[in-house]
């Protein structure tokens, strides 16, 4: 027998997509006896959490970022906070399959018992699914997410992403684009299909809208091959042929294609003049060296070969574009030579979604917090093994 959906779930399904926060507020007050609720959405840089119901006060996002909401967002666990007069504010992660959207705050007359907290967690899960679906129908939550205007190229890149993180028992995966509001050609894509996880990372050619258009063609060509049942070689070759016959070798895209068998840790790879792959095992960072083949679109009918490497439970793999690896502001040594490895080692106790932010924050600090000169993409993959537990 399947349990019937609860009143909050029914309310969310019936609500207009741009009114989910208001509908959730009314339903949660009724179902849980709450005195107040709020929904906080993470911005594109994941620098802060910003309120949906009352977006005007300039301090609201800052307070959420610095307070218990940020702890909830980072830990992905419920957090309690005293609200005075015996009231309790319960902060709950809004996440869908590991994609971290934000935080739901529920203010209650007293400290909730375990049963009430479980109900609240279920409500947060329902709301997260609804918010993710609503993004296709309304711009409201995207407006909350952006703290400045996106360039046209960045608008296209963010629309093209599959998400920013995904979690299953055997693996965690996360990625981030920078500069978030003006990124041009760097990109990442992924797909989960049974025991196969496919990940592609693109080091875009050029800047601005032209770079974004080139990347969009490459990504959609690889998706077309993948969704038609093609493996990594077919994906690379279709994308390369498509780009070449559009640009006759004048424009091309360095790309890494990976396919992880989530049961065994075996990784197949096509290195098409690719971004850089580094593995964190224990406390040691080492570069995974692959034989580089031609970038996608450089020559007509280019053909590609598979390579393989193997992960052990607990391995963390970073894939970074040249904007990360080769960054050398003011004549400093390239970020990828030593500084990046230190940043990666410092992420050992962080989840993948936090680790990508750490590496990029260190990159911005390396640039003395000035604007990044080049697009930068960081993807982090943790493989936990078939039983879902790290080796150590």
UniProtKB/TrEMBL annotation:
<feature type="domain" description="PPM-type phosphatase">
    <location>
        <begin position="168"/>
        <end position="383"/>
    </location>
</feature>
<protein>
    <submittedName>
        <fullName>SpoIIE family protein phosphatase</fullName>
    </submittedName>
</protein>
<keyword id="KW-0378">Hydrolase</keyword>
<dbReference type="InterPro" id="IPR001932">
    <property type="entry name" value="PPM-type_phosphatase-like_dom"/>
</dbReference>
<dbReference type="InterPro" id="IPR029016">
    <property type="entry name" value="GAF-like_dom_sf"/>
</dbReference>
<dbReference type="InterPro" id="IPR036457">
    <property type="entry name" value="PPM-type-like_dom_sf"/>
</dbReference>
<dbReference type="InterPro" id="IPR052016">
    <property type="entry name" value="Bact_Sigma-Reg"/>
</dbReference>
<dbReference type="Pfam" id="PF07228">
    <property type="entry name" value="SpoIIE"/>
</dbReference>
């Amino acid at each position: 027998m399947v349990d019937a959906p609860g009143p909050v779930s029914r309310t969310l399904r019936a609500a207009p997509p741009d009114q989910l926060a208001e509908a959730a507020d009314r339903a949660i007050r009724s179902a849980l006896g709450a005195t107040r609720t709020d929904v906080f959405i993470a911005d594109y840089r994941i620098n802060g959490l910003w309120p949906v119901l009352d977006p005007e006060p300039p301090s609201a996002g800052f307070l959420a970022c610095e307070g218990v909401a940020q702890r909830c967002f980072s830990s992905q666990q419920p957090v309690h906070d005293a609200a005075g007069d015996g009231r309790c504010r319960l902060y709950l992660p809004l996440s869908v399959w590991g994609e971290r959207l934000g935080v739901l705050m529920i203010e209650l007359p007293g400290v909730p018992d375990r049963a009430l907290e479980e109900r609240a967690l279920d409500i947060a899960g329902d709301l997260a699914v609804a918010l993710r679906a609503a993004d296709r129908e309304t711009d409201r939550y995207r407006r909350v997410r952006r703290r400045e205007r996106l360039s046209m190229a960045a608008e296209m890149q963010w629309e093209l992403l599959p998400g920013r993180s995904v979690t299953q028992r055997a693996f965690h995966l996360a990625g981030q684009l920078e500069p978030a509001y003006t990124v041009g050609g760097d990109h990442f894509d992924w797909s989960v299909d049974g025991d196969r996880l496919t990940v592609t990372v693109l080091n875009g050619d050029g800047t601005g809208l032209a770079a974004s258009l080139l990347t969009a063609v490459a990504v959609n060509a690889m998706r077309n091959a993948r969704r038609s049942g093609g493996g990594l070689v077919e994906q690379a070759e279709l994308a390369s042929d498509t780009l070449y016959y559009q640009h006759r070798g004048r424009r091309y895209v360095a790309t890494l294609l990976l396919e992880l068998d989530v049961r065994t840790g075996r990784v197949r790879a096509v290195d098409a003049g690719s971004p850089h792959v580094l593995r964190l095992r224990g406390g040691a960072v080492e570069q995974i060296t692959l034989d580089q083949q031609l970038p996608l679109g450089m020559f007509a009918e280019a053909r590609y070969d598979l390579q393989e490497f193997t992960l052990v439970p607990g391995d963390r793999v970073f894939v970074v574009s040249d904007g990360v690896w080769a960054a050398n502001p003011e004549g400093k040594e390239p970020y990828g030579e030593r500084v990046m490895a230190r940043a990666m080692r410092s992420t050992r106790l962080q989840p993948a979604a936090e680790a990508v932010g750490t590496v990029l924050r260190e990159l911005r600090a390396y640039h003395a917090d000035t604007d990044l000169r080049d697009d930068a993409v960081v993807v982090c993959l943790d493989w936990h093994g078939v039983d879902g537990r790290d080796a150590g």
